[in-house]
Amino acid sequence: MTENIRIVLVNTSHPGNIGGAARAMKNMGLSKLVLVSPKVFPSEEAVSRASGASDLLDSAVVVDTLEEAISDCQLVIGTSARERHIPWPLLDPRESAELTYKEGLETAFVFGREDRGLTNEELQRCHYHVHIPSVEAFSSLNLATAVQVIAYELRMKLLSLGDSPIVQSKWDVPAATSEQMDHMLEHLENVLGEIEFLDPKAPRQVMTRFRRLYQRAQMDQQEMGMLRGVLTAIEKQCR
Amino acid sequence: MTENIRIVLVNTSHPGNIGGAARAMKNMGLSKLVLVSPKVFPSEEAVSRASGASDLLDSAVVVDTLEEAISDCQLVIGTSARERHIPWPLLDPRESAELTYKEGLETAFVFGREDRGLTNEELQRCHYHVHIPSVEAFSSLNLATAVQVIAYELRMKLLSLGDSPIVQSKWDVPAATSEQMDHMLEHLENVLGEIEFLDPKAPRQVMTRFRRLYQRAQMDQQEMGMLRGVLTAIEKQCR
């Protein structure tokens, strides 16, 4: 029932936090851990802090980039402590758990660095941001306890579903993956250049807004194909 | 609003956990920490793990017995991982937070030793037990993350009472109107005709899918303007 959920830790500095996160996950019945360029891994300290959850460390997938970590995910939720310049759909942990089990999509929860969290670019790859409602004056949670809160809410939601299977959304087409989204946005950026829509002085802002818009819609694969078709048709006509 | 709540840690072995608990408390707006016969305190490791919450360590009350720690409390809730011989009123973390704020009583949450939790005698001093719903096969949470879960639920409950609402990310642009959506979709349909994307045999289905997609995203007016700009740019290029 939790196979569709992965916890992604980006550029973790302290191996103890990786171990603590693994323990928190296993306590709450989660098993899929993905590490994006951890500073130190594997590590004795991680095993020690995992305190019996070292099987999750053994099976952890280590990758170089966030893109790889989430390429096949249909729902990506990034943890964020701060307000961003461009507002993004924002959930609290409970809402994020509801969404995860409502749709049953291949889902990633992405946690950033201990000191700086996720970069703006990383956050923009997420469909939603989740904010653990800490007090403003002291808002930065320890990484493992942040994982604990999210994993706890996922567990509470799962238990509230009882024995009833996940209510699959009745959408008739599978949700698009992050990789498909990336390809479509690249295609879009090229076309916007060709039709001279993109302001060369500020291309990123426009593309960020397009990413936000299309991710927010949680596009399905047919819609994705339709947009790609439109882009190809524009290219043909404009040459 | 949280002055009536104290966190009581009984016989903690690892000072790092005391620091971690202090940090979790401060993140969630709690400030009263009571330590019953900690093995090592004060300690550099506790300060280090508190990571900015050392003021809670400085003001922590250290006592010899649980009785002293809770003597003036009206509601005592003890954390328990196991089923006990004598059933006790059992809450989940969410229910325990509801109870705490419902009554406004002087309340203690009591956390046991890292390895053995609370003794039966200690648990029997509690009005209620609270169980964090871990998986049975791996049920023992790290002490600081257990404090985090309870403190998080207290915070969620407090915020739901409206005392200091969660700072919602404020969308910076007004939502688009239905009329703006209709105009954009008309514009889109014209352009899709011009670039010969629309199948004349089944134009409606495509436009229906576009409407569904863009409505689902609940577009704002800036995004709407951006899309209109793209459509206009395509028209210019393709003539």
Automatic annotation (TrEMBL), chains A, B:
Keywords: Cytoplasm, Methyltransferase, S-adenosyl-L-methionine, Transferase, tRNA processing. It is found in: Cytoplasm. It catalyses: uridine(32) in tRNA + S-adenosyl-L-methionine = 2'-O-methyluridine(32) in tRNA + S-adenosyl-L-homocysteine + H(+); cytidine(32) in tRNA + S-adenosyl-L-methionine = 2'-O-methylcytidine(32) in tRNA + S-adenosyl-L-homocysteine + H(+). Catalyzes the formation of 2'O-methylated cytidine (Cm32) or 2'O-methylated uridine (Um32) at position 32 in tRNA. NCBIfam families: rRNA_methyl_1. Belongs to the class IV-like SAM-binding methyltransferase superfamily. RNA methyltransferase TrmH family. This is tRNA (cytidine/uridine-2'-O-)-methyltransferase TrmJ. It comes from Marinomonas mediterranea (strain ATCC 700492 / JCM 21426 / NBRC 103028 / MMB-1).
